Amino acid sequence: MKSVIDVVDLTVGEIDELIKIACDIIENPEKYQDAMKHKKLATLFFEPSTRTRLSFEAAMYELGGSVLSVSSAQSSSAAKGESIADTAKTVSQYADIIAMRHPKDGAALAASTNASIPVINAGDGGHCHPTQTLADLLTVYREKGGFENLCVGICGDLKYGRTVHSLIAALSRYAGIKFVLISPKELSVPEYVTEGIIKKNNIPFTETEFLEEAMPKLDILYMTRIQRERFDSEEEYMRLKDSYILTPDKLSGAKPDLSILHPLPRVNEISVDIDKDPRACYFKQVRYGKYMRMALILKLIDEAEKDGKTTVRGTHIENAVCKNARCVTNCERELEKLFYHTENGECRCSWCDTKID
Amino acid sequence: MKSVIDVVDLTVGEIDELIKIACDIIENPEKYQDAMKHKKLATLFFEPSTRTRLSFEAAMYELGGSVLSVSSAQSSSAAKGESIADTAKTVSQYADIIAMRHPKDGAALAASTNASIPVINAGDGGHCHPTQTLADLLTVYREKGGFENLCVGICGDLKYGRTVHSLIAALSRYAGIKFVLISPKELSVPEYVTEGIIKKNNIPFTETEFLEEAMPKLDILYMTRIQRERFDSEEEYMRLKDSYILTPDKLSGAKPDLSILHPLPRVNEISVDIDKDPRACYFKQVRYGKYMRMALILKLIDEAEKDGKTTVRGTHIENAVCKNARCVTNCERELEKLFYHTENGECRCSWCDTKID
Amino acid sequence: MKSVIDVVDLTVGEIDELIKIACDIIENPEKYQDAMKHKKLATLFFEPSTRTRLSFEAAMYELGGSVLSVSSAQSSSAAKGESIADTAKTVSQYADIIAMRHPKDGAALAASTNASIPVINAGDGGHCHPTQTLADLLTVYREKGGFENLCVGICGDLKYGRTVHSLIAALSRYAGIKFVLISPKELSVPEYVTEGIIKKNNIPFTETEFLEEAMPKLDILYMTRIQRERFDSEEEYMRLKDSYILTPDKLSGAKPDLSILHPLPRVNEISVDIDKDPRACYFKQVRYGKYMRMALILKLIDEAEKDGKTTVRGTHIENAVCKNARCVTNCERELEKLFYHTENGECRCSWCDTKID
To answer: Kind of pairing, strands C151-155 and C220-223?
Structure first.
């Protein structure tokens, strides 16, 4: 573990270790309150995200370290057209670890291959957001005591929600998991997830349009938002919208030990009346996110000495270019265009994982 | 004292205690330099105000704590339409205390009712700015050794200046105070202050249009700015503007131990030539503001464990809505509309104190 | 040394002392890691510059101090039209030292004459950027063991590049220095530098249009960027542009112990293939910049007690005004317009050093 770019780069063993560290921090905070004394975290947020930035900064402060903060592109050298590579090399002279948020897919990977210090991906466009998934996992672990034999309902926009895909991928590695995928048909989980992840791991799953119908079976309910514009038609939206808003009455059929998660921020998909319900875990989830980031910072800085640089899998292919307009290779100067082949023979961009044909 | 939203919520005893703590900090800073070690202040400034933000952050650092800083709306989740309530609940997972600045009247109260940690109102629109008033009070106390028997001149825009109204309300609780209210007629103190506060407390006061005329009596001169557009007519502005600009010659008739205060920032209402005059206290006032914020942070975090949540006085009234366009109830989702009745039977919004009829 | 506004205000002895301190920090970092405990640096960046701001903040953290950060004008009182003088007086109540970046020429000097704490100029418009020059000097010193008898090549836009002029001025004070000035004719070093600094100090120098031709002699190569629009004509640009882009082949004739410097950020004037070359020093230079800022902070805070205020040389001249549109005197209220005479009888603005005629 030199840098953390995508949660699926982590082995089950590495995730278990991070959870173990996080739990020890929760139980013995004073043991860690000076663990990172004289160390510096640089939070490079080239796109605003208070929640995630403050979570990283709170994590570093609770470890006794300090923080160099960049909270928007306009106040940064990026405004002067500096490359991500040069920013990473420069900040490596100032800090001990970087947490980076950037609008371009693959930006954190581009930074990690140039930085001489560990890089944590705090969100690269619509590509990955591994610390959110790690926060989700720690929440499930703390609420349920483990990952085995859980019935996990995931509700909302399952087509475009990347955090949902990462969560499914991460949970699919544990035994006895069942998924109930709750969404309008036009926003159901894409095939590469159902085929490539869920079925491939022989995970039982059902798909439904109706949250209430699914409720009774669930141990975990992971809520996400559906943006109005994602629906095929206004009629569809009017027909379905209420079924994806969690209200107290929809909980009537739920298990007494259900755990309700949400990556936040929410708009109206969970009524505030639910906040008082002991089954509401989404603000605890925020706290667990902080502890997970503490564990990550500890682990990565601890290993930083040993490990070498992050290397990118893949090779150069004559004339091949990534067609993803938001891919970092389309804005970053002198970044080698690399591609890799998946088991099923697809060719994908090494930076943003977009399929090339 | 769970949270501090409006200075008049504090009893004279509580203010005296804060002044006592602030004075002890001034005399024994080293005693406090690690008092807040491992504690975190979140400065949530959804509206720019360097002076106030840096004052809070300097205060926390001088107590040995650390700071999570949000210095503008655009770099925050608020940009994504998150409710103040959710922001407060989230930041409660990261920090030990919040200092919040927000453009909406009542925003800090809305945050405090949802946060599980103390909230200090660092300015909610044109509604309240209690730490400014507390800084003013500490300055008067340090300069005069107390509040009794002082002749306090307040000059400038006394109609719209909320800090002025708070200062009058706070000082009206001490014995032997006299006010000299200096302003153009169209910008004189509103009736709810003269009738509802000054006369109600049997405080002797005079009103005048001319600063120089008032000068000889004054122990304290509190200067504020008048915005040109506040005048009824351009003629009025031209006739009066110079009389509200403090210049060395205007000080000729003043007492040798006069103390000149100003909330800052100033434009031109106090000539820079006055800065060297020993009677100029407005930069000392900035320093006292820092010490008062240190006292507040200490006191609130100390009491945080004991106290419960902030509760809002008032009840729901069928169909009643607050007509103040800047009231937080007009932008915040699912915030209960509450109202209370004053002694003289007025009905007011519980969040922004606007009168309902 | 009360404040550092322009590198030429520092004597050779003072620069040597700063280098000595910086070297001791590099060799014994732990000796300094709590040297500034309980001290505060205010980084007032009214113009974005992540690199410089983070360098100052990293420097303060590595000295055990804390940081009050203002990273853009829009989030500051400046937005409310506060004068630089009042900002300086206010921040003096909060911090122990200021590092200030401002778009106006002379802004840092205006701040230092009003602050009661030391001010470091982190760039005032196109006027001065002393900590960049000090970083350049430390890099040369560390790479070459001293400044004597070096052949220093400076390449790029030598007409408008202020850091280049400062570097020439600073190096011209050491014995045995030789300059090779590499630029298109229309962007060659201005006369006030060749005549007023280089020749005046009897420094041997040559001027050339061609980097490759100069390469073999050089001990130091200082690269800077040329902006396309600086060229007289598109033809000129097309003819010359490639000759100012450093590529591996251009290094073929270079000394094995050449040191390549660049103030950064770069666009494309140094190919990234050079980064791996041991002669590339520009990222080490970033690190040296941090150490030099640590030395400055230590030195200035240490001397702060002793020294008095910064005073401005020069006198008031009836009706004289500075014609530099970017001069701080053209935006700052009540800032006395002062002028001084140079040895050769020129009259210059005391704030931005622009020649008055």
So the answer is: parallel
Told to judge if C142 belongs to the known catalytic residues of this protein, a careful annotator would answer no
Whether residue B308 contacts residue B314, with contact meaning beta carbons closer than 8 Å, is answered with no
Whether residue B313 lies in the annotated active site: no
Pairing relationship of beta strands C66-70 and B355-356 according to DSSP bridges: unpaired
What confidence tens digit (pLDDT) does each residue in B33-49 have? Answer: 999 999 999 999 998 88
Query: Is there a contact between A275 and B88 (Cβ–Cβ < 8 Å)?
Result: no
The C-alpha angle with vertex A215 and arms to A213 and A217, in degrees rounded to 5, equals 105
Q: Is A52 one of the annotated active-site residues of the chain?
A: yes
Question: One of B52, B87, B224, B354 is an active-site residue; which one?
Answer: B52
Report the alpha-carbon distance of residue A88 to residue C277 in Å, rounded: 18
Complex ipTM more than 0.90, yes or no: yes
Q: Do the Cβ atoms of A68 and C49 come within 8 Å?
A: no
Cα separation, C290 vs C292, in Å, equals 5
CATH number of B7-129+287-304: 3.40.50.1370
Q: How confident is the model at residue A260 (pLDDT cuts 50, 70, 90)?
A: very high
The yes-or-no answer on residue B52 being catalytic is: yes
Q: pLDDT over 90 for what percent of chain A? A: 75
In the three-class reduction of DSSP (H, G, I as helix; E, B as strand; rest coil), residue C105 is classed as: strand
Question: Domain B314-357 has what CATH class?
Answer: mainly beta
Interatomic CA distance for residues A77 and C53, integer angstroms = 10
| Chain region(s) in chain A for CATH 3.40.50.1370 | 7-129+287-304, 130-286
CATH architecture of C130-286: 3-Layer(aba) Sandwich (3.40)
Taking contacts as CB-CB distances below 8 angstroms, the residues of chain C near A117 are none
Nearest-CB residue to B77 (from A33, A51, A268)? A51
- Which pTM does this prediction carry? 0.94
Query: Which range, of A264-273, A275-284, B230-239, C38-47, averages the lowest pLDDT?
Result: B230-239
Checking if the pLDDT of B154 tops 90, the result is: yes
Chains in touch with B (≥3 Cβ pairs < 8 A): A, C
Q: Which residues of B touch C309 (CB under 8 A)?
A: none
